[in-house]
Structures are given as structure tokens and as C-alpha cells.
Amino acid sequence: MRHDRPAGPPADHPASPSDLPSDPGDQVWLRFVSGPDIEAIALTPAEIVEAVADVVAAHGRGETVFEPRTHLVTRDDGRGHFNVLRGHVSTLGERGVAGVKVVGDFVDNHTLGLPSELALLTLYDPTTGVPLAILDATLITEVRTGAMTAVGARHLARRDARVLGHVGARGTAFSNVVMLDAAFDLEEIRVTSRRPESREAFAERLREVTSTPVVVTDSIADTLAGADIAVEATRLVEPAPLVTCDLLAPGSLLIPYGTVSALAPDLLDVVDKVVVDDWREAQAGEFGALRPHLRSGALTRETLHAEIGEIATGARPGREDDAERILFWHRGLSILDVAVGHLLLRRAEAAGLGTLVRMR
């Protein structure tokens, strides 16, 4: 993609921190890293997965400060809301980094040519509160979600998994599939979504980057039945029992993270282990794939097997048997955004990308 940049900053606008006055007094400058800047940095999927794996382990060791998300619901028709995510990772940089992300989730954005999820991430020095950066977090949201899917599968899927079934074709879907395809020796990728045009376009996009056969199906049943790894990333307005017990093969891993539940009420009856990214996050808010199962008491702290950070650090076992059916529910942790955002900020600083903005 072409990335035109201005010839230079205005006279009162430093090009980099080294151009700041030696004694800036009470001046505060922060770096705005735009979507085109992030595309130019071009982090690899492997770099993103490792950044997410590292912060998942840090969370398991208690090296993060994490708060569950809150919601700002601006529509009463179930077709859109904002998520506000907050977190701090002490292992990033010399003093750690704190961050806040606001992401909108609006189901009809495709009719306007917009992603359903648009986001901004702000990063801060946790010792002074000084803002460090503002980043377009739309791509960050997509890739850190795909990376968490891959990290979860690394611990919970069978190593000989060969068939991936993916339901949903919105923004995060591409990273899910690409990162899982890189982690496993897949023989078939099945995809479907509610709109025929979106699933066909999704399949074509995947075929450009993978040699694994990509099969488009007309139904969730055809996509998930017998799949070794099943990912549900629908965007429903009302809960619907689309993923049923009969679709989960012995030894399969199901990763559901739709905003509104697409899971049958009795699904946990056939699941051997339920793993979440964070138990407090799982309980927070009104949305999420297992929200009805929490409300009904089918999922409790006692029936939960583990948080993924406990498994990453070895405190709890992951997959112990090739016949286990495992469900991994990840809602998206703020600390993943902070970790990937921090990596992008460091790369932007090194490459001279982004725009320095004077706050005060």
C-alpha cells in the first residue's frame, strides 16, 4: 500500500523525541500512530502471537493490573455499543505501560464500507500518568484476537488437528484463520457466514495467503461438524442455539467469542473442560458467548477448569487427553492491546513513523 508522508513537520513540531528541547519544562508530547503507519510497520503474525503469548503468561504470574471491560450502550436495538478496556503490564519497557482502549462494535457498519469494530488505544507512563501515544487500534483489535485464538489452541487443541471450521467473516476472522494455519499442519479450512457475499470474499482473501484448501459452506453445521478446531465468531443481535452438542467431535476444541451467544444452552453438558482468558472478565458486562450459561449456573468458578494464563505458566494442565472436548472462551483482554500497542509504538519510534502531537 502506498504510504505518502509529509516532507517534514512544521517548525514548532519535533520530528522525533531527540528534536525536543533539552529542557522542555512542562511540555508533554505524544505520538499518534495512524492506521497507515501501522500497516507500514508490518508486524508479522509470529511477532504478534509471541507478544500475546508473553503477556498471557505475565497475567498468569500476576505481573499485570487488569480491569474487566465496561460497556457504553448507545443503541437500544442491539446493533451497536462501545467497549472500554483498561490494563497495565509491568513487564513492558523499564517501568511498564498502562493503556485504555475504546472500541465500537456496530453490526451494520459493513453497509457504510466500515469495519464493524473501530478502535483507539491510548498508552501511558504508569508512574506519572503522562500519555505516551494514541494508536489506531482497529487492526490491533483484529490481530490480537487472532493471536489469542492461536495461543489458546497451542495449549488446548490436539497437535494433530487437521480440519479448521470457522463461522463468521468479520474483521477478526482473517487473523484467526491465518494464525491457526501457521500453528497447525491443516489439511482443510472450512468457512461460512450469514451473507454469501462475505463468506466468498473471505475465502478468496484466505486463498491469497495460504496453500491449505479453503472450502466455503452454506451452514454452520457443515462448517463445524467433525472439525478438530471450531471457531464461532458470529455477530448476532439475539441469542440463538446455532452451535449444538452434536457438532463437537471427540477431541475437538471450540473457541466461541461472538458478542451475542450462538451456543446451545446444553452445550456444556458434552464439554470436558471450559477455559477462559480471565474469570472476572468472563463475568463482566451483558455480552459474550457464554453469558446465558453463566446466568443459568451452567458455568461457575467451580465448574471452570482454568484461566489460560494458569495453563501458560504450568499452574494448571491444558489438554490431557486426545478425546477431550475443550471450550476456550476469550472475550479480549485489555493487556493484549497494551502489549501489541507497545510493540507497535517501539517500532514506530525506531522507524520515525507517526506524528508527534503536543498535548501541553
UniProtKB/TrEMBL annotation:
It holds the Pfam family OCD_Mu_crystall. InterPro entries: NAD(P)-bd_dom_sf, ODC_Mu_crystall, ODC_N. SUPFAM superfamilies: NAD(P)-binding Rossmann-fold domains (SSF51735). Residues 1-26 are annotated as: Disordered. It comes from the Bacteria. This is Ornithine cyclodeaminase family protein. It comes from Nocardioides fonticola.
